[in-house]
Design brief:
This protein is of the alpha+beta class. It is built from one helix and two strands; from the N terminus they run E-E-H. The termini are far apart.
Length: about 70
């Protein structure tokens, strides 16, 4: 990982499968977390929880400020 302890990456994912229904996503954005050292499973879960909470709070804040959500 080129000397980095943690790497966070988002990326567009396309699944080349014949599913184009509301129950099967063929395209989505992925969030990948890479760690350079071994971490306890609970530590990784807590980090993911905090990161996702932060992301969703910021999205909600942006939508409220734009007037898209009441």
């Amino acid at each position: 990982m080129a000397g980095f302890e943690r790497v966070f990456e988002t990326g567009h994912v396309y699944r080349a499968e014949p599913h184009a229904t509301s129950r099967h996503l063929t395209e989505y954005y992925s969030l990948d977390l890479e760690f350079g050292s071994l971490m306890a499973q609970r530590t990784v879960i807590q980090l993911e929880r905090e990161l996702l909470t932060y992301i969703f709070d910021r999205v909600k804040q942006g939508l409220c400020e734009s007037g898209s959500v009441v």
